[in-house]
Amino acid sequence: xxxILKNDxxxxxxxxxxxxxxxxxxxxxxxxxxxxxxxxxxxxxxxxCDSRAHSTSFTFNPxxxxxxxxxxxxxxxxxxxxxxxxxxxxxxxxxxxxxxxGCGAVKASMGDYSNLHSSIIREIDHLALSIKKSDINxxxxxxxxxxxxxxxxVNQQVELAIKDFHDLRNDKSLAIIGMVLDxxxxxxxxxxxxxxxxxxxxxxxxxxxxxxxxKSFFA
Length: 219
Fold this sequence. Notes:
By secondary structure, the protein is α/β, with parallel strands linked by helices. The protein is built from 8 helices and 5 strands; from the N terminus they run αββαβααααββαα. It has a 5-stranded mixed β-sheet with strand order 2-1-3-4-5, with helices on one face. The longest helix is centred in the first third of the chain and has 24 residues, at 11-34.
């Protein structure tokens, strides 16, 4: 047999794709038929492509509910066309930016990343600009600065989206929300906990916690 891959430890992963897909189609065939001809998602979701951050952290049914756009650092500018498509063509009433603690792209943007491949540098450059605009307390520990940079990056992405979708915001047909998935528990709310950090530009934690809209789904 021709050698395709030196590392044969991943064969079990490939096998699981087939096995899981068989179970999936058997359990969801009738549901898949309902959206086979068109999609009607309610949310355009921009999230990092980190392997630890997945839709399984917040939904059991992503199909036809979430139009998902992924890139390093959950950035708006890198996939602007995809996001525009979700918001303006698919007319999703929700646009969510989901960042996560322990984000490697954010960490890289906070330091010297010139040794990386040029294609990666180009994508982190946008992120670095976002991070530099944010207010991070340099007297705090590295962990806290990293955590705060993740949050500030989400806020920067929300801000960019608000500018481009101001018309939809003005007529209340779109809500733009920033969330953070706490993978390393640096926010102290529990490993894997998701929290709202921004609603249409509002970032004050107390105001968010008491906001009727936020309480309606994140009480």
